[in-house]
Design brief:
The protein is an all-alpha fold and about 70 residues long. It is built from two helices and no strands.
Length: about 70
């Protein structure tokens, strides 16, 4: 896995990523790194759930119009 291969669209997100990447590079406590990774994974999963729920609501609203 190479994060350099993932391109972010907005400069703001790229800047935010760079700040986080530098913070991670400075870390020495592996337990802290593990906790951050677990948090990031869980937040990504939560974001997917919320997005899917929003789509289902939108689809439901679109279907009920017919």
């Amino acid at each position: 896995m190479n994060p350099a291969k993932v391109k972010l669209e907005s400069p703001e997100k790229e800047f935010e990523y760079e700040k986080i990447a530098r913070t991670i590079d400075k870390m020495n406590d592996i337990e802290e790194v593990k906790m951050m990774l677990k948090y990031s994974i869980k937040m990504g999963m939560k974001q997917t759930e919320v997005f899917n729920n929003m789509l289902l609501i939108q689809i439901g609203d679109d279907i009920s119009e017919y």
